[in-house]
Amino acid sequence: MLTRLLGEIAREYHQLQVRHQARGRDGAGNAAHRRLGHKMAELADRFERLLEHWAPEPGIADAWRQHLRGRGPRPDGPDLAEPPLFRGTTDGGARIEVRRTAGNDGVDEVDIFCDGARIARESGPWTLEAEAIEPVTIAGQVCIDSNDASPDAISALRDFIARPGREPPWRFARELYEDGLIDIDFALTARGGRCLARLGADRPTSRGRAARARPGGTRARYCVIVADAARARILLLATTDSGLAPTLMPLTEVADLSRPQGRARDRDLHSESRPGQRADTFAGASSGHTVSDHRDSRRRETSREFAEDVADAASRVWRTLPACEIVVVASPSMLGHLRPAIARRSGGAIPHNVHELARDLSKLAPAALHDALATAGHLPPRGRREPLPRLQREVGPRRHR
Fold this sequence. Notes:
By secondary structure, the chain is an alpha+beta fold. The chain has 3 domains: 2-68; 84-212, no CATH class; 220-262 and 297-375, Nucleotidyltransferase, domain 5 (2-Layer Sandwich), CATH 3.30.420. The chain is 34% helix and 23% strand. It has helices at 2-27, 31-54, 58-68, 151-162, 173-178, 190-198, 266-269, 295-318, 332-343, 366-375; strands spanning 84-90, 95-102, 108-114, 117-123, 136-138, 141-145, 202-204, 210-212, 220-227, 231-238, 251-258, 277-282, 285-290, 325-330, 353-358. The strands form 4 sheets. The chain has a 6-stranded antiparallel sheet with strand order 4-3-2-1-6-5. A 5-stranded mixed sheet has the order 11-10-9-14-15, sandwiched between helices. Helix 1 (2-27) packs antiparallel against helix 2, helix 2 packs antiparallel against helix 3 and helix 8 packs across helix 9 (332-343). It is elongated and about 90 Å long. The two termini are 60 Å apart. 24% of the residues are buried.
């Protein structure tokens, strides 16, 4: 990555140099000539800064300086590995990493690793914002973010972000970069933002202003399971306030399970839409009656199996949390299957409180579901952000021409 970046800067510098020299012949000292000179100086400063902090070997650094001046070929090193976009652990202790890689035809791709072995490759940009609620699901794995950088390095990064304008703590740059917390220019990454948010640090928002994270970091406290016979969703709500005080955090979906045959009609599942007729003959007279083919019992059994799958997926989520309230929302029949399945998994060393609502809300969007559960008293209501104050302009006396 470093070699590629240095090469790109050198190539842009050389292109500007050609234009700068041409402008100099046409008329040295004009505005266009000066702008090109300023751009070249900025590129040279960045080039030197990268060499100083990321290429400590004198021979390599001197070779790159000669290349920038057009006096030597492009060196092959040094290089830095792509930092992780995500690094965390599952409830089973497996290590999950997401790293960017160059795909075919220059298309951005990411590789997903589990304990060092690649388990998936995804195309397109991959992002996990600083506001993402843990745990997160990556390639079907429910994960909690973790960091390898030392506490001293993370503390230095937190102090630097909280007090902008100071010199970055470059002595920790390599381990912060290798943990994916900063980029090569010592700018905070989304992963770095998640790390500082967990520590309750001040972190910059997308507009560049400092935003104070909630004291103690944001923690998921409510695990919501909403299901019917064909579909189940698992959602999390994070809040740092106790009780049912309004929260600005959204109800976020982390898993979606489906069983399409749960909504299928009998004629779609069986060769006959109704059980068949059996004819009996008594004293020369025939009569017919319906023969049960156990369709209802089969539907109940498949619903029970689906409920077990849903409880397994939900337990993998709530086991990664230190404590949470479990809210189960389902139709009465599905709730009857989910209740024992969840009860078998919600005990253990960290017992969880389970709340139930016998309503079919499976088709509601997360915000509408949040409002419905808040009305029922199972979730804190959604808060409303205060409107931004209007800018007050000082109006001076009008000038007359």
